[in-house]
Amino acid sequence: MKKRSTWRERITDQAAGLFSHAPDPLAGTFNYPNDPGMFGPGSPTWTIMSDVSTFIGGIRSLLVQAAHPEVAAGVGDHSNYHADPLGRLSRTASYVTVTSYGALPEIDQAIAAVRQAHRPVSGTSHRGRKYSAAAPDMAAWVHNALIDSFLVAHQTYGPTPLSPAQADAYVAEQTRLGNRMNAHPLPDTATDLSRWLVDHPSLSDSPAGRDALRFVARPPLPLFTALAYRILFQAAVATLPPEICQAIGVTPRRGAKSVGRLLIKALRRAMGYSPAWGAALDRCGHPRVRGKRIRSTEGVTR
Questions:
Q1: Domain boundaries in the chain?
Q2: What is the pLDDT of residue 297?
């Protein structure tokens, strides 16, 4: 008789299934024993990226990216996210996972692949400005949007907010990754990072940004997943500064943060913490954190 799956297994399978449309980014990570990667055990990066609040951070980063018309045009003109949304989501998640938790050779390989993919991404936005994904300023917008969003999501929805010093340490850590991506400028404190985004002179509404927003707001998902996603989306909007909200045309909903915290708490209870974190700790020979259940995923953990 087939064993019935538990509620935790069902939720985990549905959530993890969204990110299973690309190869496992850490499939060969144990070929690099004792390699701490770019950040290592105890780093703020490993703490932030281990938690399910990154689901909200990822959505938020897409909203922030849409506020830059040239970045949005590059995505709209060259990405296949409409035709293959889960594939693009999985590839983006793989990049974030490997650059956070991978060994240095895995990180270098991921960065080289992104650079190769970005080489042909160039054109002209609706307002007549040329763009190139390889340009340092565009790379900086994407990188800084990601870092700010993961930090804000963790501070708002994570299990324990980082101290101001830890938040600054996280941003400073991520400048090392940004430098490898040829991104510039790279603010190195949390306050400077958020201020750089909201004061950016390129902030504006755009056709490509509106198209991206419509898709991010209502991607094609199964009903149950779509309902949960809608809560995560509104929770992400609730953390946006007014300048970004105005640029993309969204309004935070009352109570969205409270509902988002309840859902994230339920997801954390169901899913535990990232298996990539567990794999990285095991690769480094570092003990796992007591009291934090790391979910097991075949091919990632041993």
A1: 37-270
A2: 52
261-265, 281-285, 287-291, range with the lowest pLDDT: 287-291
Query: Mean pLDDT, to the nearest integer, of 12-23?
Result: 60
CB-count burial class (<10 Å; 0-12, 13-18, 19+) for 177: buried
H helices of the chain, in order, are 7-17, 44-49, 54-66, 69-78, 85-101, 104-118, 136-157, 164-180, 190-198, 207-217, 223-237, 242-248, 256-271, 275-284
Give yes or no for residue 88 having a pLDDT over 50: yes
Q: What are phi and psi of 265, to 5 degrees?
A: -65, -40
Nearest C-alpha neighbor of 200 from the set 128, 140, 136: 140
123: helix, strand or coil: strand
The β-bridge relationship of strands 130-132 and 122-124 is antiparallel
Site of tokens 């430098």: 179
53 pLDDT higher than 50:
yes
Compute the distance between CA of residue 96 and CA of residue 293 in angstroms, rounded to an integer: 21
Look at phi and psi of residue 252 and say left if phi exceeds 0, alpha if psi is from -120 to 50, else beta. Answer: beta
Tell me: pLDDT of 301 over 50. Answer: no
What are 130's strand-pairing partners? 124
CA 53 to chain CA centroid, nearest Å? 10
